[in-house]
Amino acid sequence: MKAMILAAGRGERMQPLTDSIPKAMIAAGGRPLIVHLIERLRRAGFVDLVVNVSHLGAIIERALGDGAALGVRIAYSRESAPLETAGGIAWALPLLGDAPFAVVNGDVYSDYDLTRLKSAAATLTNGRLAAHLVLVDNPDHHPAGDFCLRAGRVGVDGPERLTFSGLGVYAPALFVPVARGASCALAALLGPAIARGEVTGERHCGLWMDVGTPQRLAALERRLASDGP
């Protein structure tokens, strides 16, 4: 099973740091965020990875190479300009193949058991489901949440809303409607699929951090210094 790491964004909330380094290459605990993520993916059995790059992407490619030094195989999906999440995934489909695949945000740090994504992928192979999302309790910076979860199905309305973690599994067919090279937000595809009952989900109650600002990066640094990676 393949996994895609989203690393093409400009990281505007991290400026001016991201004026000279892509967000995925920002270090925490002495290693780039993307290296932490690759190591966790490898330990979970994901060795065929696709990394999308755009803003300062050459820096990522020089640092990671073909992935051999990290025990994985990396293929790069190059975007001349960031295509947003769904657009970037659609652009990378020729590298991802015909089977369900995992997608992880390059700026997420979590103790979620990534092997669970493989089990989720098995439920998507029959063609009746489009996606499986990992949801977390709403962080302080996103108190309204994104979705609700009832009996393993993702919905948009409910008494308790949760935040999408940036971890998920998708059927390639979900992205076929996106014109190749077009920019497209993931929500534009998930909304109709959720309405059709084609999106399952689970709640992760452990460690999860969206390292999207200098303040949250500093919080991760403190955690790694006290607890270790």
Detail the topology: elements first, then pairings:
Blueprint: E1 3-6, E2 27-28, E3 31-32, H1 33-43, E4 48-53, H2 57-64, E5 73-78, H3 84-96, E6 101-105, E7 108-110, H4 116-124, E8 131-136, E9 148-150, E10 153-155, E11 163-170, H5 186-195, E12 199-204, E13 208-210, H6 214-227
Parallel strand pairs: 1-4, 1-6, 4-5, 8-12
Antiparallel strand pairs: 2-3, 6-11, 7-13, 8-11, 9-10
What is the SS-derived class?
alpha/beta
Portion of residues within helices: 25-40%
What is the count of DSSP helices, taking H or I runs of 4+ residues? 6
Enter the CATH topology name.
Spore Coat Polysaccharide Biosynthesis Protein SpsA, Chain A
CATH class: Alpha Beta
**How much beta, percentage-wise?**
15-25%
Provide an overview of this structure.
This protein has 6 helices and 13 strands. It has a 7-stranded mixed sheet. It is globular, with a radius of gyration of 17 Å. 42% of the residues are buried. The chain is α/β, with parallel strands linked by helices and 229 residues long. It has helices at residues 33-43, 57-64, 84-96, 116-124, 186-195, 214-227, and strands at residues 3-6, 27-28, 31-32, 48-53, 73-78, 101-105, 108-110, 131-136, 148-150, 153-155, 163-170, 199-204, 208-210. The mean pLDDT is 95. Helix 2 (57-64) links the parallel strand 4 and strand 5. The chain has one domain (3-221): Spore Coat Polysaccharide Biosynthesis Protein SpsA, Chain A (Alpha-Beta Complex), CATH 3.90.550.10.
